[in-house]
Structures are given as structure tokens and as C-alpha cells.
Write a structure and sequence with these properties.
Largest sheet: 7 strands, mixed
Radius of gyration: 18 Å
Number of strands: 16
Strand order of the largest sheet: 1-2-3-13-5-15-4
Shape: globular
Oligomer: single chain
Number of helices: 7
Strand content: 15-25%
Distance between the termini: 26 Å
Structural class: alpha+beta
Amino acid sequence: MSSIDVVKLGANIGARIDGVDVSGNLDAATVSAINDALLEHKVIFFRGQHELDDEGQLAFARLLGTPTIAHPTVTSRGDRILPIDSRYDKANSWHTDVTFVDRIPKASLLRAVTLPSYGGTTTWASTEVAYERLPAPLRALVENLWAVHTNEFDYAADYDGRHEQLGDNERQYRDEFTSQYFETEHPVVRVHPETGKRVLVLGHFIKQFVGLSAAESATLFQLLQNRVTKLENTIRWQWELGDLAIWDNRATQHYAVADYDDQFRRLSRITLAGDVPVDIRGERSRVIAGDASHYADVTVPVSLAS
């Protein structure tokens, strides 16, 4: 098999891939075509993968890259596969995964395991399109801007003072999430290592912009985030059992919509190792605190390494 059926779902982001059983034996041409679709559409979806289990998901992930450990700090719930479990966290704020370390992951593979009877969708946004549609004055600003990213808040932290309202499970998860402190300075505009396109590096792990006050940072952050999350830049996915989603973590943000009340929701996530971002002048991200070498090796795309 050397071609795949790619069904475009939106003008700027999202595609469904039909006719592929990811738990089967995939040849190199098919895997390359899947990776190409990921780079083009930023998030891709597979329906009907009912034979896929944790081991199959991990085997498929290894065809696309090098899996990291489940998480840099959350290590109590799995080695390679991180359960996205609504009892602990709901990921309901816009973020790019694990930007608080220097080696931002390439991609994540998320498989539906248990779904609520309603709600529980996930939305992705293209940070490539968001950059491309910036007016010239904002482009000039962000191309010279760096930001401090930390793991001070977990995925459920939407800056509304909810810590006092957390249940025991959520509090335990948050404490584990921040058990080792990481802080990294990333360029706000990075060059994508496979496409060469410029993309924005934002999301809720940003603490402050370098050289700006907290108040200035908050105002600018909201302005830029609003550009990323314009509805035209997004795709919203209604999960079904047997679904697998893969997103390019270097060119997207995502948001899990917490609109399913107290129902249980669980998905299994595997993350692929990535590289250290570089800005448009070739300057690499800078580690301020924390060593992420246990989390993943720095991987350079084969096309650039050869």
C-alpha cells in the first residue's frame, strides 16, 4: 500500500484518514504518507480502530517517531502511555504539550478508551496559520519576542484561582505535575523542523515574555492567543470509540472541552520526542531550570539530519 485516502475537514486544519488499519502491518510508503498528511493538516483522525490496544498504539507510534516516557513529572500512572483521565485533569485550556522543557515533543497520539454520553470534544488550532495571518507590525514584534514557559500550572489551570476548589485526585495530580520544576525560554516564533514554516509557540505554560512586565505580558499574551484560537483556525472533534487522533505538537495548540459534567472520560496518549526550537535567526531555546534528558532524547527529523 503506497497511498492513503485523506479527507480534508477544514480549510486551515484537520483531516480524516480512511482505509488504514493502524494496528496492521504498514509499509514505509504508507507511514511516510501518514506523516506527510500530519505535516500538511496538523491534526489527523482515524475512525474505526477497534482492534487497537495500548501495545498496538505504541507499535504504531514507533513507526512515526521515538516515544518519550509518559510525562516529565507525572510518572505514577504509566511508563510510555499517559492516561488522560477526567478524575485527575481535564486539559481544558489552550496549550501545546510540554513546552516547559527545551525539547518540545514532535507529536502526540490520542486514543479514545472510555467516553461520556455527551460532550468531551477536543479542539485543535493551527499556530502556523495564526502566524501567517498576523499583520506586519505584529509579525515584527513576535519575531523578536521570547517567552518563559514553566510547569507551574497543570492542564486544568486556567488562571481562575481554582486551586482551592480542587478535589483530592486533582490536587494530588497537580502536586505531582509540579514535583520537579522546569523553566525554559522559547522564541515566540520558531521554524518548524520538517516544513520550514514559521509557527507561534504560545499556550498556557507561558509565565511571562522576556523583557516585559507581568501586566504587559498578560495583555500581549491574550492578544496573541486570540489570534491562534480564531474559529477559522480550529477543528473540533467529536470522539467515538475506536478513534485515534494524531497532532503535530510543533504547529498546534489544543483544548479538551469540559462539557460532560461528572461523567468519566479516559483516553490514552503517547508522545513522540522532538527537537529544541530555533528562532528565525537560528538561536536555540534556553534551559533556565530542570533537566529533561530523562523525558526524551532530542530528535532531529531524518530529512534534516541526512
